[in-house]
Each structure stands twice: as structure tokens, then as C-alpha cells.
Design brief:
Largest sheet: 8 strands, parallel
Strand content: 15-25%
Radius of gyration: 23 Å
Strand order of the largest sheet: 17-16-15-14-13-20-21-22
Distance between the termini: 63 Å
Number of helices: 12
């Protein structure tokens, strides 16, 4: 077993610490907090990782300064490290998908000790998560699934998105009186793909019409929203737009939320405050298992670039929920899309001071470069495919899309 050095002594680092269990953590590394203590562990300078990288597992656990740390790692020659998966550390309880059970309610350390995972092997697919577990536990990674049928004395860490394989393995173990299956959380399943197909109801639903995507920037005025309501405009609300419902009669036609951090902490309120169709990332199935009425799951391709031709199969992540909605608008057949409240400046500011709750984890500064590149791709795609995206925001610094005066609309 190796111990982990968590790079980032902030909220994300805290969540990583809780997810792993303190016994797995050697220390934290942080440029700003070096020389202090965090959660009872020393905080060392990031440059010290040069001498420690061979003996410890390096885990990058931050969002706002992740790109800067990656560059620093490159300069230091720290080329082997893992990313802390924020979509998993909010996962609680025992969840079931069909006959498959996923155990992740306690820290990894607790599972490691209780299930005897130091004697286990990884069965299934090779992913960054499985590689992390393999190196952390000091165990063997196995890719052949038929081995589990022959050797019932071994413990297995199951890492597969194939429901048929998973269910067969679990069934065989139970029939022989064995157990020893520890399943890693997954969000890619055949049954989930079936749920994605429900998005087909939106294909060309609004062909030739116009719509508004409502951002949450400080320029957003409730008076403008009231005008949209009076005119019966089709509108997309984003994230926690419901926090201004008390100040306007306007309500969105659709609401979309994809960010794992926002979803994990606001999913319940999202469903309670909106009666319109709600579209959420399927990543939420790691911590909110039930899919309610009028709710649609979308799948984001995180590490690929492009503009989706078929929203029901998935969308490209552009660093912002707005990009997912732009792809949805194309799928729905809109001829013109107007952005409102999309300031793209003062990233930490929103339409009110209570946008984020105290102690809530969120990205203060998103990846602006990634967002603007995605917007550029959206503008190019729209012009090439016969529809347009316009920016009706009052001010801000988003100049990629042609600007229009909101009042003239």
C-alpha cells in the first residue's frame, strides 16, 4: 500500500481527504499554505514533490488553479499523477443499478480494511480510476473477466460498464456461496443509454422558432425576464436560476444543470423549484439515484471537443452548462438563439449575493479559455448549419457572438 499526497489544501482537497480516509494521506502540497497544517496533516511546498513522487501517489485535488498546477508539475518533471474525480466524492450510500450493487458509502480506507482489498485484483476495464486504485492498494490489475469464474477464493474490484458482465459475475459468485466483489461507481451503463434515448422527444420540437438562454451574470435584470414572460418567449434557465423566482413572474421553459459540483449540492432544490422539463447530467446518478418525472438525463463527453450532431447520444463539455444548452438548441431546431445575462466577466459574481450558500463548494474562476473556444465552435457550427446565436447581454465581455440590443427584440 502507498500513501497519497493531496495537491490542494482547499475544499476539494478536504473532500479528497474524506473520500480516501486520513490513513491513506501522507500530507498535502500547496503553494499558498505550505508550512502549515490542514486536517491534521502537514502542508509541504509543491516543489518538494520532485523528491517524493516515486514513493507516494500524487493526487491533484483542485479546480480553480488546476491548469497552473499542471504546468508547475510539468516544469518539475512530475509527470505521473492522478486527478481527484469530483463527481464521485459526493457519492453516498449503497446504490443499485438493476442487480448490480455499488458500495461507496464509507472512505476507501474503511472499504480497504473491511473487504481485505489488499488481497484483491481489479477486474474489468482499465481507467484512470482503476489505475489509481491499483497503485494505491498495491494490487494487480486484471483485464480478463473469465478468470473470476474459475477462482472463487480471490476478491475482486469490479470496474466495468458492461451490465451483462457485471450481473453474470455477481450471480455466479452468489450461486457458489462466495462474495468478495467490490464494485467501483460507474455512470456508463446500457440502461442509462436507454434513458438517454428519451431525449429524442426534443428532436426539432421548436423548428424555426427563437429562444433565449438565460445566464446568471450580474447584468441579468428581473425586468427583462418579465418582458420575456409577457411575450411568451421560450427560455432556458441554467443551474440555480430558481434563486430569483421570488423577484419575477418569469419562469423558464426548460432548466439545465450539468456541473457535478452544482448538481451534487443543488439537485433537490432544482427539482422542487421547477415544474418544467429539467435536463441534468447523468453524473448525478452517483449521488441522486432516482430519476423523477419530467427529468431527462444527458451525457457529457468530458475530454473531447466538438459540437454534438445528436443530443440524445451525448454532448461535448465546453467548461460551461451554456455550451450543452447551445447543442440542445441546435437539436431542437431553433433558427435563432439569444443569450441574456451571459457576462463572461466577474466570474465570481451573479445576479444576487446569495447565489452560493455558505460552505458550498464551487468554481470561483472557471476555465475561461476552454469556454471561449467552445463558444467559438458554437458560432461556427451555427453559421454552417443555418441558424444563429446572438448575444443580447447588457455589457460583459463576450464578443464572439454578434451583439443585438435586447430592447429591440
Amino acid at each position: 500500500m502507498k500513501k497519497v499526497i493531496i495537491t490542494g489544501a482547499g475544499d476539494i482537497g478536504r473532500a479528497a481527504f474524506q473520500f480516501l480516509g486520513g490513513e491513506f494521506v501522507q500530507c498535502f502540497a500547496d503553494n499558498k499554505k505550505k508550512g502549515t497544517e490542514f486536517l491534521g496533516k502537514p502542508v509541504i511546498p509543491v516543489e518538494d514533490l520532485v523528491n517524493l513522487k516515486k514513493d507516494y501517489v500524487i493526487l491533484l485535488a483542485m479546480t480553480n488553479y488546476a491548469n497552473e498546477l499542471k504546468q508547475q508539475f510539468c516544469e518539475l518533471g512530475v509527470d505521473h499523477y492522478f486527478h481527484f474525480c469530483e463527481s464521485i466524492y459526493f457519492f453516498e450510500g449503497v446504490k443499485k443499478w438493476n442487480k448490480r450493487t455499488v458500495y461507496e458509502g464509507r472512505s476507501l480506507w474503511a472499504c480497504y480494511r473491511e473487504y481485505g482489498l489488499d488481497q484483491a485484483v481489479i477486474l474489468g476495464e482499465k481507467t484512470e480510476y482503476s489505475d489509481f486504485i491499483s497503485e494505491l492498494f498495491g494490487i494487480e490489475a486484471v483485464l480478463e473477466v473469465n478468470e473470476v469464474c474459475r477462482d472463487f477464493g480471490r476478491k475482486y474490484i469490479l470496474n466495468s460498464t458492461d451490465d451483462c458482465i457485471c450481473n453474470d459475475i455477481i450471480k455466479q459468485r452468489l450461486q457458489t456461496g462466495g462474495d468478495g466483489i467490490f464494485a467501483l461507481p460507474q455512470t456508463e451503463h446500457a440502461q442509462m443509454t436507454d434513458e438517454h434515448r428519451e431525449l429524442a422527444v426534443f428532436k426539432n420540437r421548436h423548428k424555426g422558432q427563437r429562444c433565449f438562454i438565460i445566464g446568471n451574470g450580474p447584468s441579468l435584470r428581473t425586468g427583462d425576464l418579465d418582458k420575456l414572460s409577457e411575450n411568451g418567449e421560450i427560455c432556458f434557465g441554467l443551474n440555480v436560476i430558481h434563486k430569483l423566482y421570488a423577484d419575477t413572474k418569469w419562469r423558464p421553459t426548460y432548466v439545465c444543470m450539468t456541473d457535478p459540483l452544482v448538481l451534487a449540492q443543488n439537485y433537490t432544490a432544482l427539482k422542487e423549484k421547477n415544474s418544467c422539463p429539467v435536463l441534468v447530467s447523468d453524473i448525478k446518478l452517483l449521488y441522486h439515484w432516482e430519476t423523477g418525472e419530467n427529468e431527462y438525463l444527458i451525457h457529457e463527453w468530458m475530454d473531447r471537443t466538438g459540437f454534438s450532431e445528436d443530443f440524445s447520444k451525448g454532448v461535448y463539455n465546453g467548461g460551461t452548462v451554456t455550451y450543452a444548452v447551445m447543442q440542445l438548441c441546435a437539436y431542437m431546431g431553433f433558427s435563432s438563439v439569444y443569450l441574456l445575462g451571459m457576462d463572461c466577466s466577474n466570474w465570481g459574481s451573479h445576479f444576487n449575493e446569495d447565489y452560493w450558500q455558505k460552505n458550498e463548494v464551487y468554481r470561483v474562476v472557471p476555465d475561461e479559455s476552454k469556454i471561449f473556444k467552445a463558444y467559438q465552435r458554437a458560432d461556427e457550427y451555427a453559421r454552417e448549419h443555418g441558424f444563429r446565436i446572438f448575444n443580447a447581454t447588457r455589457g460583459g465581455k463576450l464578443e464572439i457572438f454578434e451583439r443585438v440590443d435586447f430592447d429591440s427584440l
